[in-house]
Amino acid sequence: MTGKKGRGHAGVYFLTAGLFIFSYSFADEFGPDLGRPVRQERQVVVTDEEDSGLSRTFDNNQGQSGAGTSSPVRPGSSGQAGQPTSQTHEPGDVLDAAVTPGIHVPEPVGARFTGTLEDHRAEFSVDYLWDVVRAGLRSGVVSGTNLFGGPGIPYAVLQPSLYITGSVTAEHNGENLDAMAQVSGSYLYMLTEQSILDPGQSDYASAEEELFVGSAYGDVIYAFRVSPDAAIASFAGASLWDQGLAGPGGQWIYEGNAGIAGGLNVSESDTVHAWTQLQVNYLRTDSYQNQVPDHQHNHSMSFDGLESGVDYTHRFDSDSSLRLWAQYEYRDPYQLIEGGADYTDGPFGASVAGHYQDTDSPWFANEFGAAARAGYQPFSWLGFDLTGFWLDRSDIDDRPLESRYGLTVGLSGTFDTDGSGYDVDASVARQRSGTPNSQDILDGGYHVYDVNNEFTQAFDQTVSDFEDFASFADNLPVNSVDDILQAGARMAAGIQSRNYNHNELPDNVLRIYNADDTEEIYDRWRQSYLTGEEDPTTVCIGAAQVVSQLVMRLGRRLGINIEAAPVDVVVRGGGSILAGHAISMIRIPERGFVFVDWGNIIPTYTHDPETALAVYDGLVGSAAVFHNVRDAEHGGRYVGRIYMDQGRPILEATSILGDPNIQPRQPDLFDGDPRSSDITRDRALDSVDDLLLEPGPQSHNDL
Prior knowledge:
The structure is a single chain. The protein has 703 residues and is an alpha+beta fold. It is 17% helix and 41% strand.
């Protein structure tokens, strides 16, 4: 474990602030169609010279980019298909006087109500809007089981759990400078069932815990015109999500991004966009220590990815358009290419997309697939949606993995011009992860290394004979994969029993810092192993790092390409589900993934890394939101993050990623990783469109 658990109060403060602002009395008059309700849209009025009493207003909420439009329901909803592309307002709807392009017209004060029902999350939200500030309150349940009773998430232990999220959002829209910030606090009453093992086999019982989660997001966008028909925006954003407010064992995400976006009106009917951005994470620098003597945390900025994209939109008329798009992502463990087409024609909408992911990492999968979507919205209060996807998957050795597929039906609608509405999405069929032989998993479970087998004497003798880690690993007599796993589990068990640093995070005693070097950890572990004396040296993260190095070296000696990495997990600690931990995740070519968790050896019987982690979570009764994977051969630096299916609804419920007011420019058809950088990118493209909608001298917008 990483340290003792303490109770934090920041989440309570965030929540209290949001509820206080929200409690302000409602105004009698509701706002207009909100779409992105906080945004003070740039209003462009073009006066018809033949009828000076009639004006035409272009509102970016309604979207001039056709298939890129969004409805005022939550991201990915069926309401995105077939939305109108423009609105006509009578005089006085915006301003009684003429409006100069670029002037921002405040939204009237108003309230908005939204209902969301999905397979694993049900939510009701209320938002109250001022000119530049919105206070929101969301409440509902999240669950690893299917709330509709359909296909659930394999190995999930998260039971229907109540949450309440309060948020305050402020937004500024200047002529060239846009900015938005949101702070939220959540209360989550988490219920988890016992391990997927039979009660008699597991030490983990059902648990309930009150969690306080804090989240924040902020961005700055500077947009300007470079010609009558071209605009550019530079942007930067940052976000945090911290489930550790209840103690140091929680999970947290600190990430940032910066990039540039541009748009060009090729003609009155054709527009091109392009964008690129760099993403970073603030994470542990290595996998030896949590704390270091010279500063508080062993953390720094890490490269997370580089993304680029382009799209082309052709508008046939005010109600129909075709958009073609492509996107490329580069990350250390993989490269991803997606592309597709979106078509809208009045109340009808359709999308198709392709997906290709190539990896040279054992911790991610090769993927190839397609997705399609169709929607029809005959009335504002009723829209139909059907979405399907399929992904063929394989590991780095081209070994076939379980395919993923899904078919989802949806209903959505809005009730009034304030944007209040509902969204219902239900999976008809879904394969979220592989399903290795459940009986093998139950029979295997947790088992401790064998202290009485033939390997014991050879292991003890080698420890005695060799004083450094390299010599020990090069001379330990191993003859099989089982010997290798035994060696890793024995070393980890010894660290746990005699070298665990209980004074890493002391309350009233002198702090002892962890060792930060494999050779030092081995030397001190060896002395304790031979003498039986305790020597506080490291915690779980250091043990996972050294064990991963050991099993890889032993595998090479036998000509077996064993790969291993320290991985961040969440386990129960004293009955709590919020206990940060780290284990060694080991990939054996013919066996799949096996975990060494202290003295336990845990087979999963799958070659799918995400499925293997789902099995581990199920065995320990954990509802982890994600797992960070690290590089054992480079000090345990960050490699990538694997989001878990049962963790996604938790993240959406307690952060801006699930805010029903934040609309994507296009739906995520392939269940991509949830990233706040997508919000920043979309807002930057919106700022570009705002400028492109403003008629410039001799521009294509001149009507």
